[in-house]
Amino acid sequence: MKLNSAIAAALLATGVYADDASKVDSTESSTSAIELPTFTPTTLKAPFLEQFTDGWDKRWKPSHAKKDTKGQEEEWAYVGEWSVEEPYKYKGMEGDEGLVVKNAAAHHAISAKFPKKIDPKGKTLVVQYEVKLQKGLECGGAYLKLLRDTKALHQDEFSNATPYVVMFGPDKCGATNKIHFIFNHKNPKTGEYEEKHLSAAPQATIQKTTELYTLIVQPNNTFTIKRGGDIVRDGSLFDQFSPAVNPEKEIDDPNDKKPEDWVDEARIPDPEAKKPEDWDEDAPFEIVDEEATKPEDWLEDEPLTVPDPEAQKPEDWDDEEDGDWVPPTVPNPKCADASGCGPWSKPMMKNPDYKGKWTAPYIDNPAYKGVWAPRKIKNLDYFEDKHPANLEPMGAIGFELWTMQSDILFDNIYIGHSIEDAEKLAQETFFKKSVVEKALEDAEKPKADDKPKSPSDLKFLDDPVLYVKEKLDLFLTIAANDPIQAIKFVPEVPTAVGGLLVTIVALVGIFTMGGAAPEAVKKTAGDAKEKAKDAKDKAAEAVSTGAENVKAEVNKRATRSQQS
User: Fold this and answer.
1) Using one digit for the tens of pLDDT, what is the confidence trace for 131-157?
2) How far apart are CA 145 and CA 60, in angstroms?
3) 148 contacts 184 by C-beta, under 8 angstroms
4) Is 90 left (phi over 0), alpha (psi -120 to 50) or beta?
5) What is the pLDDT of residues 150-209, one digit of tens each?
6) 463-474 burial, b if ≥16 CB within 10 A, otherwise e?
7) 3, 58, 109, 170: which could join 78 in a potential S-S bond, CB 3.0 to 4.6 Å?
8) Side-chain half-sphere CA neighbours of 291 within 13 A
């Protein structure tokens, strides 16, 4: 019994090592079979178009300013690092580099000035860029900001307090998952700016393949948001943002108070109603069905469960070590063909006299005056902006983010006025790489028809315990008749046993020779230790429970539970 447990543990470690190697080989072969398109810089022109080619570090400048944390004791700095590199996860295009967030759980800020300010007044504004979440996104932002063109716009000082015109892109933390679209609107009366947030924003795509986000703001005050080239939201700047662009003409009078004698309860309990004399509040909900009779086929002397007649005491069961063997129980087959087994009792039924607690019925309130509301007065702050799409001029683009996941990649940024050019850029880049990335992602997914049909087809990582059990059982079954064939047909077991014996020999040699082990023994022990270390993370839990789970397959655990 103890030898079987040791073999099982060794087989677990061997399985992890071998399965890892086959997994790497299959991944490499599937990746190499997919031909990657080669990145070619676009010839399209735009007010700002960034593909992070040579010279990107002259355009983009990280900020190490302090984050504005008014009202908070803790002070934060933008210490997160940035890099331009090719993706390592689902690489969809050869030579295509992007801007990468390098640190997890850190504040990042970087910006690039436009060659000249972008003024969207009277023009279509198109904002488009790619986001690749190489490690997914549990909590953090991946949005961009178009910064207001001011004399105070300094890249070194870029922070969360830097005025922006548009904020657009994905943001996720916990249950919150949205594509932000926020624009800062200037009050024509006061000159102050107020953020306008898109209500019920669409969800972002949280995946490790590249996603394309597009925002289009038209001169007719409409907007469109696309995800992967498909429209996920469109509407008007007037009625889908909070707070609204234009305030109400009239507002509630803040000085108007509800009169003390105002009655706003529409219905009240009938004050004249009385509980009927025969109303029994103490009557139970259910009572015993006195008319019920025991079914004729009810087997009152039969137990619900019986010992399993097919169970056999394991050959390796040790009464001294394991206690008296008791077969496991199964449902009594006689009960399946009868109305029931065991002691019979009359069932419960709903009490026809049950009424519950009495309450007076409700009637219309004769004193009801309706829902009170303060009177309306003229809004002194009212204004009407008929062209909210005429956003403020923009002088730079920036990423100011905090994220728990690193390696978020941004690429192919288009800021301009041509929907057609933005779509052309997407065809040259996103739609070419997305096909490849999807194929790479699909290649990693297990196929439904790859289920093992025999012990020879089993994969260790699919089910470690099943793998050990089936391999060990198959080896012992064949070895009982022909040990040589068992070694040939199930080589994993002797390999695991050999590794176990080599380790034991190495340890014995070290102890018997006073610590001065021969080099060959040291090397063998070192190799065994190295393989065990490689398998440690994946096999830790399986090793600790593998032997017991193999025993469980022969009813030991069930038997001991019954004995206790």
Assistant:
1) 999 999 999 999 999 999 988 788 889
2) 14
3) yes
4) left
5) 887 888 899 999 999 999 999 999 899 999 999 999 999 999 999 999 999 999 999 999
6) ebbbbbbbbbeb
7) 109
8) 1
